[in-house]
Design a protein that fits this description.
By secondary structure, the protein is of the alpha+beta class. It has a single domain, classed as Alpha-Beta Complex (Cyclic Phosphodiesterase, Chain: A), CATH 3.90.1140. The chain is built from four helices and nine strands.
């Protein structure tokens, strides 16, 4: 039996943007309750989560993704505002919004989605939403203080990053959280 690799396809974030996004996390922490925060060193924008995939299938899929992204142009993305899914007061996921560049990012995600579909990966049920996960609430409860702080950060400028590469990432779950390892990268034109 071949090894399975828990994996996803993503875009990396610049250290400067990660620092500003981390500062937003720091402002949220005192009021957030029981949240598993994403380490700023691990910030990324997920284009497609693949899950546990047999090594051969994973690399065949990656080659299709690379082919689908041929000619894709690099662009700048700006992060602005903090929000939550499903609502601010009953947050499950706390995120930073992608502003400038979100149309281009959605285009990359659609190309990746189609390429992965050719290898039997199910299409996402929901439309792609350009966002960066800051943290996940372990046990969502009504939290008005968190909702107020998210509202305060709704229009906050949170940095800019160049989107110049797409990454195939490995995700290993540990007691301290997920550890991400870059397996492959493709530079954009």
């Amino acid at each position: 039996m071949s090894e399975e690799i828990r994996s996803f396809i993503a875009v990396a974030i610049s250290p400067e943007a990660a620092e500003k996004l981390g500062a937003a996390q720091a402002r949220l922490r005192p009021v957030a309750g029981d949240v598993k925060w994403v380490n700023p060193d691990s910030f990324h924008l997920t284009l497609k989560f693949l899950g546990a995939v047999e090594r051969g299938r994973l690399y065949e899929t990656w080659e299709s993704v690379r082919a689908s992204l041929a000619g894709a142009k690099r662009f700048a993305m700006r992060f602005r505002g903090v929000g939550a899914f499903p609502t601010r007061s009953r947050a499950r996921v706390i995120w930073a919004g992608a502003e400038d560049g979100k149309t281009e990012l959605s285009g990359l995600a659609e190309r990746v989605e189609r390429a992965c579909g050719e290898h039997g990966f199910a299409r996402e049920d929901r439309p792609f939403q350009a966002h960066l996960t800051l943290g996940r609430v372990r046990e969502p409860v009504l939290n008005e203080r968190l909702a107020e702080m998210i509202a305060e950060l709704e229009h906050e400028e949170l940095g800019e990053t160049a989107v110049d590469r797409v990454l195939l990432m490995k995700s290993e779950l540990t007691p301290r959280g997920a550890v991400y390892t870059e397996l492959e990268l493709m530079l954009l034109d």
